[in-house]
TrEMBL record:
<dbReference type="GO" id="GO:0030313">
    <property type="term" value="C:cell envelope"/>
</dbReference>
<keyword id="KW-0564">Palmitate</keyword>
<protein>
    <submittedName>
        <fullName>Polar amino acid transport system substrate-binding protein</fullName>
    </submittedName>
</protein>
<feature type="domain" description="Ionotropic glutamate receptor C-terminal">
    <location>
        <begin position="40"/>
        <end position="258"/>
    </location>
</feature>
<keyword id="KW-0449">Lipoprotein</keyword>
<dbReference type="Pfam" id="PF00497">
    <property type="entry name" value="SBP_bac_3"/>
</dbReference>
<feature type="signal peptide">
    <location>
        <begin position="1"/>
        <end position="19"/>
    </location>
</feature>
<feature type="domain" description="Solute-binding protein family 3/N-terminal">
    <location>
        <begin position="40"/>
        <end position="258"/>
    </location>
</feature>
<keyword id="KW-0732">Signal</keyword>
<dbReference type="InterPro" id="IPR018313">
    <property type="entry name" value="SBP_3_CS"/>
</dbReference>
<dbReference type="GO" id="GO:0015276">
    <property type="term" value="F:ligand-gated monoatomic ion channel activity"/>
</dbReference>
<dbReference type="InterPro" id="IPR001320">
    <property type="entry name" value="Iontro_rcpt_C"/>
</dbReference>
<comment type="similarity">
    <text>Belongs to the bacterial solute-binding protein 3 family.</text>
</comment>
<dbReference type="GO" id="GO:0016020">
    <property type="term" value="C:membrane"/>
</dbReference>
<dbReference type="InterPro" id="IPR001638">
    <property type="entry name" value="Solute-binding_3/MltF_N"/>
</dbReference>
Length: 258
């Protein structure tokens, strides 16, 4: 009986050792599969802002910012990891060190600079008002008594709040640009106020009409980082390089040409 019990204990020890070896191999395979061991660069975006960031039919990220982010990550030797979230939560994600950088068509406003650092500006679009094709709204003077829709957390939200006092319209705020377009199509807002490049895309795709905002000279778009991030200088060097060699213009021709 004692002999049988001893054999049983020995067998358990052998099984335990084999299991441990198997676990070790599994972990090694998982880590080596992380793009050859590259350090991960975590980026947040709000993928409802074509042509800067959106998802294709298969659910993959695509757009100008997405291609630019991959180019930057490759140049710096990182594996890019993208997290999708609401636009008005992006600054908080940087402040809490949840992500390393944000690319989301974000304008480099003085207000935002108090909370995050920005790269050099890589694009400038301006703002635009869009409405239904048969709308009689052709300029700012026609907005009195109307409802203008904007996306939460954007520079257009700030701009609309200021303009509403002068031109007498109401401001309706929604979570993302897709909802904003649905609000416009359903006549729950009379006008959508948004980035010009994005607006032009919706005009071409869905037959809206629109006019430029003549009142503002908005700041350009930049890549946002946590305060005092070491990445800022490295990314600025890449932006300078790809602007000089034409790769940045190539991305603009691909995604932003009207």
């Amino acid at each position: 009986m004692k002999y049988s019990f001893g054999k049983f204990i020995a067998l358990l020890l052998i099984i335990s050792m084999l299991a441990a070896c198997g676990t070790s191999e599994g972990n090694a395979d998982a880590s080596s599969g992380n793009s050859e061991g590259k350090e991960v660069l975590k980026m947040a975006t709000s993928a409802d802002f074509p042509p800067f960031e959106s998802r294709d039919k298969e659910g993959n990220f695509e757009g100008f910012d997405i291609d630019l982010a991959h180019l930057i990550a490759d140049k710096l030797g990182y594996e890019l990891e993208i997290e999708d979230m609401k636009f008005d939560g992006l600054i908080g994600a940087l402040q809490s060190s949840r992500v390393d950088m944000v690319m989301a068509g974000m304008s480099t406003t003085e207000k935002r600079k108090k909370n995050v650092d920005f790269s050099t500006e890589y694009n400038h679009s301006g703002e635009m008002f869009i409405s239904q094709k048969d709308s009689e709204i052709k300029g700012l003077e026609d907005l009195e008594g109307k409802t203008v829709g904007v996306q939460l957390g954007t520079i257009q939200e700030e701009g609309a709040e200021k303009l509403s006092k002068e031109y007498g319209f109401a401001v309706k705020k929604v979570d993302n640009s897709s909802i904003l377009i649905q609000e416009l199509k359903s006549n729950r807002v009379d006008v959508a106020y948004m980035d010009k490049t994005v607006a032009v895309g919706y005009i071409e795709e869905q037959g809206f009409s629109g006019f430029d905002d003549p009142t503002t000279s908005s700041p350009g778009m930049g890549i946002a980082f946590p305060k005092d991030s070491d990445l800022v200088d490295d990314v600025n060097k890449v932006l300078k390089e790809i602007e000089k060699n034409g790769k940045l213009q190539g991305l603009k021709d691909k995604w932003l040409s009207e």
